[in-house]
Structures are given as structure tokens and as C-alpha cells.
Amino acid sequence: MATGHVRGAASAVQVHPALSFDLHEDWRRAFDPCIQCGMCGGVCPLAHAMDHTPRRAIHLAREGLLDKVLQSNTLWLCVSCYTCTARCPTGLKITDVLFPALRDAAITAGLQLPGEFKRALDNTYRYGNSLGEGPRKRLEWTKGAGVPVPVISQVRRRVEVLWLVECYPSYHPRNQVQAQAMARIMHAMGVDFAVLGPEEHCLGDCERLAGEKGLFESLVEYNTSLLDKYEYDILVTGDPHAYNSLTRIYPAITGRSYPIRHYIEFFAGRLDALKPLLTHRIDARVTYHDNCCLGRMCGLYEPPRELLQAIPGITLVEMPFARHNALCCGGGGGGMWLDTVIWQAAGERLSDRRIGHALATGADILAVSCPFETPRFEDSLKSTGHEDTMVVRDILELLDRSMQGGTVA
Amino acid sequence: MNQSGRDVWVYVEHLRGAVAEHTYELLGKGRELAGALGGRLVAIFLGEGVHPLTDTLGAADSVLCVEDAALAGFTPQAHASVLRSLAEQQPPRLLLFGATSMGMDLASLLSTTLRMPLVVNCRDICVEDHRIIATNQMCGGKLLCQAEIADAPAIFTVLPGAFPAAQGKSDHPPAVQRIATPVPLEGLRTRFVRLLEPAAGDVDITKAPVLVAVGRGIQRQDNLALAEELAGLLGGAVCASRPVIDQGWLPVTRQVGKSGMIVKPRFYLALGISGASEHIEGMKGSELVVAINSDPKAPIFEVADYGVVADMFDIIPALLGVLRARKGLAA
Amino acid sequence: MNIAVLLNMVPDLVEDLELDASGTALDAQWMRYVLSESDEHALEQALLLKDRHGARVTVLALDYGDVDEALYSSLAKGADEAVRLVGIPREGLTKRAIAVAFREALRGMPADLILTGVFAIDDLDGHVAGLLAGLLDLPFVGVTRSVEPVCDDRVVVQKEYPGGLAAEIEVDLPAVIGVLSAPQPPRYVPVARIRETRRTRAVTAHDVSSIEIPPGPAILRLLKPEPAKRAEMLAGSPEDIARQMVAILQERGVLR
Predict the structure, then answer these.
(1) DSSP assignment of A133-197, as one string?
(2) In terms of Cα–Cα distance, which of A155, A154, A161 is closest to A192?
């Protein structure tokens, strides 16, 4: 499969060929080349529950029967896992173009939207985050970090790293501890970093995938002018969707590139400085879940594994369906806001299915690198009765533990 | 000052042949306020065929009963015009309503037509010399406002449950004055048609004043019966966190949380719910939260007002026992 | 049918409420405003009447607290006209004064039906819906869950009572209705349409500074009940705990 390079990125990232992205592309014309092979529906983890598979949705839309698709459950079952996009022999941008366009059409036509989904979009519009938390509370998490977390508007100088903490790590209790861990790691490594604080808004990747084009556009405007206010060498984030957005989407829309790294690349690139700090052993079998944005879309399979293997005592085991075959946790592209809808249609959560893969390895720890995944997989362990068998930890938490000592579980 | 000028009037709310419980709360408080003002407590009863109901209003010095067919089914216009006329003839010092569907309508209308200041949603009212000090609750309970009305007759709407009903209940029947309507009630521009019974089907948990919420700790579907009985005795409904709904033990309409309903009941009893933030999001607006969980570190204890670290199956039977005994049922 | 929808901005509870130095008002510096929830339902109820029966909908709002966002998004949802009422300050504005301002604005405006939320979270001296009806001497029903036209000059509403019970009440027009909820949840309007509306539509300004602002009850002080960080734990035997719980419920008025 051909690889591409991100325009202007300092490091060559292997990106899926569906790179060029136009937010206003005439989506119907874009799907003319579809040969109706059915590969998309065949690999989609939720196609079995859809009224129309992606293939059929394209067919119906081309035949002028778009209404049938808009009235169906199909548009609400996509979790933006990019598997269809990765497999499509014609290179069609099903995840980035088709589903957002269908959702946009549904929203514009005034169809009743699922309540949770509506609330998430309203919250993002009003408060800059889908959780509906007040902007002034963005820095609450820093109180438990144990190290200073500078805010760039207060340091008023160029920093090495402008850390885009993003929404779940700022507000969700389970993810706040991960943000705290990341602060401690960067502090211990002597990284010159700062955060945005209350000015920070969601980068909008999930809102874009959810079909709210106008909301995404307003977030792009806001974020591009916000990032222009400050001087930094690189941007680092722990959120794969923010990474996806700044790596592939913002450049395509604005014509500018952003020096964005996910923490796994950033830390893996500085392993020489990090490894000596990992002084405490974590004797455990660990399996890593490749999330969709970092994995399938951006090809970052080795850095997380390098980080895990740098921790003394860890034995890495691979799950079935690893790397580009990884099964999505179900949280992307609005999946976090369509939980009940998806569950009612499919009778299962993708995270439950995936936890089965993890458990099959016999590992003690499921390692992740996306904030959505920790609560989703922990929930799955409880639902499937395995909370005593395995724990879920972000790589940040494992690195932090290896630096600080103490028990992991 | 007019003889009635120190009196406290309580509007008696009734529906389907029963006086509302909070009317007794108003009578109890009204008794105290009338005493402090040196006036009488008068219960105002508008309706048709209300004879037996007036017997329960003995906490009042007297009951002023206006009977007319046009008052049988409540409409704000009919009841407000009668109250207005009565109040213009014999102006009271205080007029008390419940902060309820009926009370809210009447109080605002009368505040303008009688030109009497109004304070709504009161948790407390007291008399200090010539001043009435009312404590209003606003912003979802996050703010209390103490307001003062000096030397002037005023109207208040009172939050149900703010005062004890016991003080407003009396065994001896009151003095009742029955009169015909003081104003014509034909040709009114608002007309009561009929009462609509709640739709058969599921309970709307967003409207229940009390919710008994069950989480994973309920363990088995059979145990829901305990929660149902508790809810019945507390005057509420059963709801659940997502994992219980996932099991199919209750319909999705009973789900509380980010992916379900957002509820703001007066009382939320969380049984065996750990308190994942997705669940908290659905119930954090509850006025009073009590949580029972065997895990002392359960996050639910951070949002609950009261907590019990125990096996819920030890506490529930004891609670059922006490509640049944209160109702005079076998323990 | 001409429908006037009255919108009110109220404190947004997402951020913590702060008291100002005097302790008798909220600190406006940190306050965000949001459209009152029951007013959103009133707008939805009006739009449903427009969709199904072809009414003309005008929204009116006093000028404070990012009101333009509420007005433009109402236009984007389908309102025909939006009016911003200017000329009076927000500070110290009572519900009675708001009702007087709306009465002034409605003068000379044909309105068969006036819809507004039946209450707002910051109500102190009354509820705008009922106060306005009293000032206009119009028929009024509050706490409605549906409004349906019967004919040109009459509607039938369902007034809600506890337990899902409701009363069907006929109301002659013109009338004021205090909406609790619309028959369906407030519709979502895509951000793109709001942005487009801001570019293509105009909000009319209407001066209401001539009104006499009536004084409200004197505010002695505001209090913020401090929420406990953690639950007060009950202890003892199950029977002790059960008795303690029932006592708490009785004290809070949950159990009578």
C-alpha cells in the first residue's frame, strides 16, 4: 500500500493514501468511482446492525434514494474506525466524506437527532467541549499533578512544547489522572512545556465526523487564530483525534501545516532521555490496543510498543487483530455520544468485543493511548465480569508508575 | 388598618377529591405567621361540592368556601378572578400558595391585578416587626435569596416540603363560611374541558419526585422487586444506571446518565451504583442524594449528601421495615 | 395566527456562581448567560404551530447576556422575525420589570398567541408569563405541555399536574401561555445555518426605555449553600441507618 508524507511535518509519518481532504468536496461526485465491491460493508464492525451497509448507502445515494439512507440507522452506527477507508480498493474516503455528509444532510433536513448526540454538539458549540463543562474549569486537573503546569498566556514566551491537553483529559475524572501523569513525565524529562488553559477548545475532529460541518468550521477558525497567538516549537497532544485533525484535516483546509506530535511519537523520539527515568519495574504481561487514528490512519504502530518495552519488567503480548487490523473501541466519530443508539441496534458494544481479544492474551494490563479507551474498556471489563482479571492503563500511567514507583493496579 | 389587614390566607389546592398535602404545610406555616402578625388564618377553598374536604382544614381559624360549577375544574382565570374579588373586599396581609402548577399561575396573575409584591419558591418565611423576610431558592438550589417586604401585603409561593405538614393538620373541623361567587363566572375566556389520565405505559422518570436508582449491585433481576417496593413507599419510581438497562431488566426509558435521561428529583437513592461520571452527569441535579454502596471508595460518595458503606441487601429490608411501619402496614 | 415568543437569558449554571462585593447580586464579570430552558420549549411549541398550521412567529428578547445568539438561532430555526429590546439595563431587573418591558414591546404588535417559558431558574419576584398576562389582562394558562389550535380564535392546551396527570383547557385568543415543555424536544439547528443567518438576516431593535421600572422586593442578601465535598456517612446497625434515613427524608419534606 502506498504511503504518503504529511505536508511539512518534521518527521515522516506513514499516512494512509486518503490524505488530501476537502471539507466542501461534492461528496456525491466523489463516490462516482465506487465499484460496489462490498469491501466496506464486509470489514465494517457494525455493518451487521446497519439497515444499509456503506456499499448500499452509496448505491442508494447514487440512485437518488438518499432519503432511504437518511431515515435509516446506518448513519448513526459509524464509529469512524477507518477500516472501510483503509480497505477500499478505489481509495474512497468513506469515513471522512460519506458519513459526515450523510449526517450533515440529516441534521440539515431537521431529522430528530439522538438526545445525547444533540447535547454533545450543543455543549461543544457553547463551551468548546462536548462534556458541557465550564471553560474556567479546564485547569482543575492540574491541581493534582504534583508539578507545575504553566499556562502559555501567562509565561508569555516561546515554549518548546505547546501541549494540547484536549477535553476528556481535562474534564473526565478517569482521564485527568492521565493528564497529571503526562505532566509529571514531561517535568521529569525537563521538557519546556505549557498548556492553553481556559482558552482551549476542542479541535473538533469528532464533531466533524459527526457531520456538524459548521461547528467544525467555527472550531477551525477559533483554533487556528488561537495557535497563531503563541510561539512554540512543536505541538504535543495525548488525544489521537486531535492528532488526526491537526495532521490531516486542518492542513487540508487551511493550507498550513502544524508541527503536531502524539505523545507516543514525542516520548519514543526521546527514549534516550526517558529510559533512565524508568527505574521501577512493572512485572506484568501487557497487551497494547492500536487505536484507529494513530494506527490505521497514521501508521504509528511501533512507537507505543517501543515505549512499553522500555519499561523494565513488562512482557509485551500481541492481541489478535493487531495493528492495521485492530478492532475499534467504538468511541470515535461521535460514538461516545451514540452509545445507547449503537447498543440498541447492535446488541453489543465494540469495546466488549475487543476486550475479549485482550483477555485472550492472558495479559494483566491492557495498555491504551487514547482517552476514550480507558473508560470504555474498564466498563467492558466490568460488564463481562473480568474486572479482577485485567486492568486498563494508558501508556502514560505505566511510564509514570515506572518513574514514581508504587503499584499499578 | 382594616380588620382583615393582619390575616394570612392560604389557597387550598385540591384535585380529584383530595386536598393537596402541601396545603397542610401552608396551613401549618400560616398558623405561625398569623400568630406573629396578630391576625387570623383563613383557608380559601374554591370549587364545587367540596363539603367533606373542608373538615380537614381545622388548623385554620376559618374556611371561606366559594362554590360554583365554574370553579370545579381549575382554570387560572376563574380562580384568580374570585380570589381577586375576595382580596379586594377584605385585603389580607399575606396570601400563600404552593409553588405548584396551580399556585404558580395564580400567584403571578394576582401579583399584578392586586398590585401585591410577590416572592416565589420560598423555603422559609418569617415575620420581624413589620417586615416579612422570605428566603427564595433559585438556580437549581445553588443560590438562596433573602428578600424583604416591609409594611405591605404580599403574596408568596412556597416550595412543597419546605414546612412540615403535621403542623397544618387538625382533628377538629373548622368554622366554614360558604358563599356564592362574588364575581360572574359566565363567558370566561378560559374553560376547563376535562382531566387526562397519565398514558398507560412507562413512567417518565424525569418527572418523578423520588427516584430509587439501581446499579450493578442489584445483581439479579429478581432483586428489582425490592427497589420497586421502596419506590412505591417513597412515592417515586425505579430507574437504573446503564449496566442494568444493558441487561434488559428495565426499559431504556428508565436509564439515567449521559446516554439516558437527565433527572432532577427531590430525592435520589442510589443503590449499588459506583458513580461513573457518565452516570453522575444524569443525576447531579438531584436535590438530595443518598448512596448505598459496599465500596467506600465509590465515586458516588463524592456527589451524595449522605452515604452508607454497606451491603445494600442489609439496608434495604431495614428501610422497608421502617417505611411500612410508618404507613401502618405489616413490617 | 401571529405568535410572539418571549425569550429570557438566565445565569448559566455550568460555571460556579459568584457573589459580588455587596453580597446582594451575582458577580456579572464571570457570569455566562444561557437561554432559559422553558423558553426554548416555548419557541419549539411556536415553531411546531408554524410547521403544522402556518403561523407567523416573532421572537422578542431584552438586550443582555449574548441575546443575539438566541435571536439568530431562533431565526435559523424558522422564526420569521426577531426583535431585540433595548434601552434598559440588566442590573437589578426584576421579572416584573421584564414583564412591563414585554408589554411595552407588544403594543401595536399583532399577537394572537404569546408564548413564553412558564418559569426561569432565577425567578424571585414572580414568573414573567403570569405577570405579563396579568398586566395585559389576557387569558392565561401556565405549565403547558401542548398547545393546539381549535379554530382561528381559540386554542386548547394541556396543563400538567404531578404524576403525568393533565387538564385540557380551552383558551380564547388573544392569550398568554406559560410553556413548560413542547410536545417534542427543542429542535437542533446546525451551526452552519446559524452562521448563515447572522450574515443574511437582521434583528430589529426596539426601544423600551420609556417604561417605568417597578421596584421589586428588597434583597437583603444572597447565600451560596456550600456543597459538601463528600457525603456525610451514616453508621450503625441496618435498623439505625434506616431510621436515620427516614428522619432525614422527613426533615427534607420528602416523606410527609
Answers:
(1) --GGGGGGGGGGSSS---BHHHH-S-EEEEEE--HHHHH-HHHHHHHHHHHHHHHHTT--EEE-G
(2) A161
Spell out the alpha helix ranges (H) of chain C: 37-53, 67-77, 95-106, 128-136, 191-200, 238-251
DSSP state of B181: -
What are the beta bridge partners of residue B63?
Answer: B43, B176
In this complex, the residue of A174, A339, A375 whose CB is nearest that of residue B259 is A339
β-bridge partners, A297:
none
Q: b or e along C208-231 (b: 16 or more beta carbons within 10 Å of the residue's beta carbon)?
A: beebebeebbebbebeeeeeeeeb
C5 and C109 Cβ atoms separated by less than 8 Å: no
pLDDT at B77: 97
CA–CA gap between residue A315 and residue A305 (Å, rounded): 11
Residue B193's pLDDT band (cuts 50, 70, 90): very high
Tell the residue number behind the cell numbers 404524576, with chain if given.
C163
CA distance C240 to A179: 43
Cell of B138: 433559585
Residue B44 — φ and ψ, nearest 5°?
Answer: -105, 120
Q: Is the pLDDT of residue C226 over 80?
A: no
Q: According to the model, what pLDDT value does residue A14 have?
A: 41
Decide if A237 contacts A243 (C-beta within 8 A).
Answer: yes
| CB within 8 Å: B309 and C131 | no
Size of interface A-C (CB pairs under 8 A): 48
Per-residue cell: C201: 438576516
* Interface residues from chain C to A (CB-CB < 8 Å): 14-16, 30, 32, 34, 184-185, 187-188, 190-195
Are the beta carbons of B246 and A173 separated by less than 8 Å?
Answer: no
Query: Which residues on chain A are in Cβ contact (under 8 Å) with C194?
Result: 214
Residues in chain B: 331
The C-alpha atoms of residue A6 and residue C113 are separated, in whole angstroms, by 58
Considering only alpha carbons, which residue of chain C is nearest residue A126?
C34
Q: A67 to chain B nearest CA, in Å?
A: 27
**pLDDT tens string B119-177:** 999 999 999 988 999 999 999 888 999 999 988 999 999 998 889 888 899 988 899 99
* Burial class of residue A154 (count of CB atoms within 10 Å of its CB; 0-12, 13-18, 19+): exposed
**CA-to-CA distance for B257 and C77, rounded, in angstroms?**
28
What phi and psi values does residue B117 have, to the nearest 5 degrees? Answer: -60, 150
For C175, the 3-state DSSP assignment is strand
Instruction: State how far residue A30 is from chain C, nearest Cα, in angstroms.
Output: 22
Closest C-chain CA to B161: C253
**CA–CA separation, C39 vs C45, rounded Å?**
10
pTM metric for this prediction: 0.91
How far is residue B329's CA from residue C255's CA, in Å, rounded to a whole number?
16
Name which of C32, C187, C192 is nearest A110 (Cβ-Cβ).
C187
In angstroms, the separation between the Cα of residue B111 and the nearest Cα of chain C is 7
Helix axes B76-89, B101-113, angle to 10 degrees: 50
What are C34's strand-pairing partners?
C10
pLDDT in tens, A32-90: 899 999 999 999 999 999 999 999 999 998 888 999 999 999 999 999 999 999 999 99
Give the cell for residue C180. Answer: 413548560
Evaluate whether B27 touches B57 at the Cβ level (below 8 Å). Answer: yes
Measure the CA–CA gap between B82 and A48, rounded to whole angstroms: 65
Instruction: Please tell me which of the candidates B216, B246, B259 has its beta carbon nearest to residue A116.
Output: B259
Chain C: closest CA distance from residue B148 (Å): 5
Chain A environment of B260 (Cβ under 8 Å): 340
Nearest to A405 by CA among A289, A305, A312: A312
